[in-house]
Amino acid sequence: MPDELQDLEAALRRSLRREQPPRDLAAAVLARLRPPPRRRPAWLLAAASITLAALIGLGVWRQRSQQDAQAQVAARQIQQALQLAAADLGRVQQRLQASR
Hints:
mainly alpha, single chain
């Protein structure tokens, strides 16, 4: 049994003997400590895409609404201008007929 103990002791000494660490040990340890890059879930990308599409659609709708409102204002102004011009032409025509 003493031989077995001597073998065990020799094996322990070999196992616990000082060795130089590998040169890239620090990099390897830091790489293990660094958390893996997080991947965003697919639903998050889908939600962002839907939100972006909705915002673009809202912007287009708002711009068209403003253009429609401006067109209605312009149409009323043209109608008023035509009514004034027609009234003026009517007065001019009456004067021309009266002067004959």
